[in-house]
Specification:
- The structure is a single chain.
- The protein is of the alpha/beta class and 204 residues long.
- The protein has a single domain, classed as Rossmann fold (3-Layer(aba) Sandwich).
- Helix content is 47%, strand content 10%.
């Protein structure tokens, strides 16, 4: 049986780069609006190999959210696509099929119909199309999490996102680093949870 912490945790599988920052904040804000605790590989230091830590993290979460929109080749030589996101989705799918895992996974994309070409094994699975926008991510989360006990409205999620935007600017200014770091991610999650509790009465 899952612990309460596991039941309230959600693994976030997204690109870690500057161009994705606004959607990164939107996922954190949106998950916290539903009373979930965002988890991600960037928050876990340690000497164990990365794959072992990713597997443990996925298995310790009730939900996982996988954005497969970053399919283009990178700019650095040799030009290659990113395989981390679909690989981690595969780990989550495998875990969800195990007896008693209770794990639920959701796929996000920026363009309709592209998933059937980039990952045809998922034909029959409808991704949530965010169109590369914050509102698209927030709406996608609302549609994915219809069975949770908390039922925030889009206006609530948007308010939490705006609070997180302000906090992110402060973190960058005061620390001089990026947002895709362990401490920054953990701080953003805590700040989003605090904003969600102020915004949504059922979370208090």
């Amino acid at each position: 049986m899952r612990t309460r912490a596991e039941q309230e945790s959600a693994f976030l599988n997204i690109p870690y780069d500057h161009r994705y920052e606004s959607l990164y904040l939107a996922f954190i804000a949106g998950l916290c609006a539903f009373g979930l605790r965002p988890r991600a590989t960037i928050e876990i230091p340690g000497a164990r190999r990365r794959l072992d830590r990713i597997i443990d993290l996925i298995r310790g979460c009730r939900y996982s959210f996988h954005d497969l929109s970053r399919v283009q080749l990178d700019r650095n030589s040799p030009a290659t696509p990113r395989f981390n996101m679909p690989f981690e989705l595969g780990l989550a799918v495998d875990w969800s099929l195990g007896a008693g895992s209770g794990h639920e996974w959701f796929v996000f994309e920026s363009r309709p119909h592209r998933l059937s070409k980039s990952l045809s094994d998922l034909n029959g699975t409808d991704p949530y199309i965010h169109e590369g926008t914050v509102s698209g991510v927030l709406r996608g989360l609302m549609n994915a999490l219809t069975r949770t006990s908390h039922r925030p409205e889009l206006v609530d999620l948007t308010a939490i996102y705006r609070d997180l935007q302000t906090a992110a600017r402060k973190i960058r200014t005061e620390r001089g680093g990026g947002l895709f770091e362990a401490r920054a991610f953990q701080d953003l999650a805590v700040l989003a949870q605090q904003s969600a509790q102020r915004q949504i009465s059922s979370l208090r």
